[in-house]
Structure to design on (299 residues):
């Protein structure tokens, strides 16, 4: 396949916190950019910077060498790709579609099969790194799909990510992302419990975290999520309700693979409890507040 390089046209569908930042970096890399989203207002900064507007996913795909999407969940991806005005109706054979959403692995594989029937190459590439990683262009991209499609779209991946790994056939990226999310939530649970234990024992939790960062417990979660817990800064970077969705996907993945996964089961239940406590719109680090509350700690 011919490599997709600037100034080729790339379409981006979904202008959430992550999508808008990723699309901006694709345009900065020199690609011609078309954007489409349910709320045009979210695309205004990119349109002001020179991106073109497409009213539908079908229109966005028309003339694009690569189509990217970043939307909330599996049904949204199916609608964007195969709906009445979906990507599949505007994309020419040979178009590479990169789905940066986090969805069910089995669905990602099925969507890739359906796209291939129309000559379109679909790669699943959920990402990790959060809003700041999206802004900085340093995301981790976990990719599933064909070698040819991956190689052709490498310059697009390079515009948004730093660690970019082709893991296997369609759906493989989603399996890896489930692993990423269950590790994060399990680590957040441990951090929340440890800091709450320290508080109840009379320790300064900030000093406790500082000490832990100097030892083998040091981690991204302790550096970032635990800091948010201590500061009670729950302005959403990644909403708890989205992490609940991801943990439901992880729970489904370990079940499908027949994995003995008590940590995943407990982590998934904790995210259900977090959202059901009314914190669904807060950052997932609000798990720390829930653990403290259940432990009888009052702020």
């Amino acid at each position: 396949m011919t490599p997709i390089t600037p100034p080729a046209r790339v379409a981006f569908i979904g202008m959430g916190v992550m999508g808008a930042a990723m699309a901006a970096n694709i345009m900065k890399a020199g690609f011609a950019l078309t954007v489409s989203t349910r709320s045009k207002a979210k695309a205004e900064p990119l349109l002001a910077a020179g991106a073109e507007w497409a009213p539908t996913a079908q229109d966005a795909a028309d003339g694009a060498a690569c189509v990217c999407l970043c939307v909330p969940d599996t049904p949204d991806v199916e609608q964007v790709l195969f709906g009445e005005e979906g990507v599949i109706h505007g994309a020419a054979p040979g178009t590479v579609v990169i789905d940066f959403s986090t969805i069910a692995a089995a669905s990602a594989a099925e969507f890739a099969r359906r796209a291939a029937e129309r000559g379109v190459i679909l790669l699943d590439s959920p990402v990790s790194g959060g809003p700041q990683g999206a802004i900085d262009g340093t995301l981790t991209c976990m990719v599933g799909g064909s070698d040819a499609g991956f190689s052709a779209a490498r310059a697009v991946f390079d515009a948004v990510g730093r660690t970019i790994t082709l893991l296997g056939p369609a759906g493989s990226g989603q399996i890896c992302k489930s692993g990423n999310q269950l590790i994060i939530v399990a680590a957040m649970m441990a951090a929340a419990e440890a800091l709450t234990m320290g508080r109840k024992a009379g320790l300064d939790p900030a000093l406790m975290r500082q000490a832990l960062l100097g030892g083998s417990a040091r981690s991204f979660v302790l550096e970032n999520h635990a800091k948010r817990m201590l500061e009670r800064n729950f302005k959403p970077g990644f909403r708890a309700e989205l992490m609940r969705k991801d943990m439901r996907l992880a729970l489904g993945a370990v079940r499908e693979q027949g994995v003995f996964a008590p940590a995943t089961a407990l982590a998934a239940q904790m995210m259900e409890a977090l959202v059901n406590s009314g914190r669904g719109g807060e950052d997932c680090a609000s798990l720390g507040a829930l653990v403290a509350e259940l432990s009888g700690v009052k702020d």
Notes: The radius of gyration is 20 Å. The longest helix spans residues 172-200. DSSP finds 14 helices and nine strands in the chain.
